[in-house]
Amino acid sequence: MSTKCTFHSHLASAMSQFVAFKRMQGYDYTSQAVVLQSFDRFLSVSDCSDGVLRSDTFERYVSATAELAPGTRAVRLAVVRQFSRYLHAHRPESAVVPLGMLPRHTRQIRFFRMTENDVSELMNAATRLRPKNSIRPHSIRFLIGILYSTGLRISEALKLDLRDVDLKRSTLLVRMGKFGKDRLAPVSPSTREALNTWLELRSHYAETGALTPLFLGAWNRRLTYGQASYGFRRLCLRCGLLGKPSPRLHDLRHNYACRRITLWREAGQDIEALLPILAHAMGHANIFNTQLYIHIDAQTFLQASEKFNSHVTQQMENPT
């Protein structure tokens, strides 16, 4: 939910108008507004009394964030860049944050590899979760399957209503995703069949109105992130899926992407040419985020090859 942010620098009024403009476009813009508040605090002790931004202001701000993590710095500067473009449109004498101000860094994905068998074990064990005789264990079971087979973000899946399910077209409508845009997520024939089965089971525990939630934590009550996350952690412990980093619901999305790329690679298809399709299905803002999964897949493929070569070497050294 959007919350009101207060700014205090000489550009406070412009910042408030900018946030209102972004929300008018359909963006929640809560986290970005908080980021903009940090820039506002920086400007409060800087010289911007004439209400314009200058190149040296950006340089000093970048220096002031030097102790932050690379990803955090990039996010902060990206929000400031958006604001600077907005201000420049209204006051052309105000500078825009130039590209390349931060050194490039390799983004790492926190990733826990899961096989299809791992996911099947998690789903089978889910029906034994508590509370017994409740819809919640079945809901978590189906949620795991949907995340793994569609690549939806957990927040997107939990917001789904019955009206967003189109069995005829085999799609799920994701409303107001991470970047404030709607998109259609395709589902496979097997997932469509599972959806049909779930809707039948669900009908015994909840109403079937268009605006009722797809995933339930109790009678007519939407499954919460806390309920889903806690249940998933219990399942991972029960199934022996342990490691550092520990598995999260979000890893099902990562595994969906890697599995899709693996299937394309095994089929001899042009992965680079197909990446835009994967990027759209996952709701990525740009294809560069999707390309990260190629590196994960390549690393996993290399590790598998090394294990195979090690096994062959042992067999040659210790023939039976």
CATH homologous superfamily designation of the largest domain: Intergrase catalytic core
CATH class of the largest domain equals: Mainly Alpha
Query: Which class of secondary structure composition applies to the elements?
Result: mainly alpha
Q: What is the first-to-last residue Cα distance? A: 66 Å
* SSE run: HHHHHHHEEEHEEHHHH
What is the number of independent domains?
Answer: 2
**What is the topology, as strand order, of the major beta sheet?**
1-2-3
The description of the largest β-sheet is:
3 strands, antiparallel
Report the average pLDDT across residues.
Answer: 88
Give the CA-based shape. Answer: globular
The strand count comes to 5
Query: What is the rounded Rg?
Result: 24 Å
Q: What is the strand content?
A: under 5%
Structural commentary:
It is a single chain. The chain has 320 residues and is mainly α. It has 2 domains: 12-90; 107-310, hpI Integrase, Chain A. 56% of the residues lie in helices and 5% in strands. It is built from 12 helices and 5 strands. A 3-stranded antiparallel beta sheet has the order 1-2-3. A two-stranded antiparallel sheet has the order 4-5. Strand 2 and strand 3 (183-186) form a beta hairpin. Helix 6 runs antiparallel to helix 8 and helix 6 packs parallel to helix 10. The radius of gyration is 24 Å and the shape is globular. It starts with 11 loop residues before the first helix and ends with a helix.
Could you give the topology of this structure?
Blueprint: H1 12-24, H2 30-44, H3 55-64, H4 70-90, H5 116-126, H6 136-150, H7 154-158, E1 165-166, E2 171-174, E3 183-186, H8 189-202, E4 216-218, E5 221-222, H9 225-238, H10 250-266, H11 271-282, H12 287-317
Antiparallel strand pairs: 1-2, 2-3, 4-5
Helix pairs in contact: 2-4, 5-6, 6-8, 6-9, 6-10, 10-12, 11-12
